[in-house]
Amino acid sequence: MKRITIFLLVCASLFLHASATLINAYGRDYKMLNGRWDAIIDLYDQGDRMKVYENRKPEGETDFYEYSFDGGLRLEVPGDWNSQSPELKYYEGTVWYGRHFDAEPTPGQRSILYFGAVSYRCNVYLNGKKIASHEGGFTPFEIDVTDEIKKGDNFLVVEVNNRRTRDAIPALAFDWWNYGGITRDVMLINVPDNYVKDYFIRLRKDNPDVIDVDVSMSRPESGVKVSVEIPDLKKRFEAITDDNGQISGEIKVKNLKRWAPDAPVLYDVTINGGNDRVTEEIGFRNINVEGTKILINGEPQFMRCISFHEEIPQRLGRACTKDDAVMLLSEASDLGVNMIRLAHYPQNEYTVRLAEKMGIVLWQEIPVWQGIDFEDDATREKACGMLTEMINRDKNRCAVGFWGVANETKPSAARNNFLKHLIETGKSIDTTRLYVAAFDLVEYDKNRGVFTMDDSFTENLDVIGVNKYMGWYHPWPVTPDKAVWDVTPDKPLIISEFGGEALYGQSGSRDTVSSWSEDYQARLYEDNLRMMENIPNLAGVSPWILFDFRSPFRFHPTNQEGWNRKGLVSDRGQRKKAWYIMRDFYNKKRNLSHHPLKS
Ligand code: GCB
After folding, report:
1. Where are the alpha helices (DSSP H) in 371-437?
2. Is beta strand 311-312 parallel, antiparallel or unpaired with respect to 299-300?
């Protein structure tokens, strides 16, 4: 226990130069700092030496500066830079963003500058002074700028760098586009001096009648009155903060309508703390594992899942708005899913909140993807910081059923140690979700005639994800109907990836992988779904992937052109043959689960 505490402290101090974020940024009094920002491309990293963040202008006759934010490139925030200018399509390096904004700070209130995400690392300067650094492209961070912000005009500069490095997460190479930029909303949030910093309001893991409540005020001060109200349940919980400014308690409920994929019920919840008041919709559900089944509210559920990247293929850019979330989630929903694996990193809050309203369970993960340096303590601490930021942001989203800690890792003492720390860190915040990782180590054992996997780390997880590309990266050793599985037989197993590439509109041989045809991809889907009937502990399926996505891994000049073509839907939004096979499979699964005798 002591070891965990020390580790967490190290994480916090090394990784987060900015402080932990306030919960529910979108439920606060804020001003968006989105829009067109001025930008300077700094290929050779000279901006720091030139102090571009001071935004100086020549005054005397002999003054000049070899940079200016005025009259140059302008970039939309939120947004990746790659899709905004042809020269930036492949750019990996530094871009300085700058903008003016007016502020009217209220005496006795605090001003918080909140970034939804900046990809990948950044330094933030306000009115010429460095105020924070952050690393990690998919999670929020904030800076309390009460002491720096001025009435009237302020100048905000963000130095953003997306260079891939060995110690980064993800590291040197990964199968998606390395978008750079201020990729999510930037907000200036106004809160009372002592405000509701954090809360975690959730149904107790194994109990449908108890809501556990934790609230932290921003100041470690005792004697502050805090209340949590759920008017539709006619419930109000009240307590007085302890010396840490925190309260904890439980609310007993009867006849709670639990959130479920078929009935995504959300309740208005209001948290009052001192002079602060925050409201949002929160749902309550139980998610558990019993033997090889995943139970939602006590009912076994087959997870009909799909993955997508945070990318709008038609725009060749990162998804970052409410409309983008609608586009991605409606296409997923048309497939008949009840779950989405948000690949391979925490995605924006619009997507998470809309999925929750639509009744879609989420698997959210951090980008611990192949190639992570497990030997490096600092990398481990970064991963731990990312996991903490992800869980903190979304712990009140009942749609999130799974926290994913890794994708495709190989057994080693260093790997085990690294991932164990991650799970311990996660569980120190949240024990109400299932912890999962995806593995690509399933092999066919010729002697036994079964598919098996040798990785004892699976013992540490609630649910096992298996990525297996039969018929694509792996030729079939036996026909699909003879492919018997014996993989973590005591735990629920989700096929977290399978699939193959096809160019939309290309017809070709159903038997030839290199035809890159919709016909071969369709056959591959039929074969894999047939094989899955022989996986006794199968609790869910997640094809890879909903849309074709951009990836520098993919060189083939006519079939790929920089796109991973495993999408069920093309980059232009056209559905391939395999989409219909998957839709029919999910329809059947859904109808089966509605059958009173089969679940
Ligand atoms: C995988 C990875 C995924 C890749 C996919 C592929 O196993 O988890 O990120 O994009 O394979 O297409 O090879």
Report:
1. 377-394, 413-429
2. unpaired
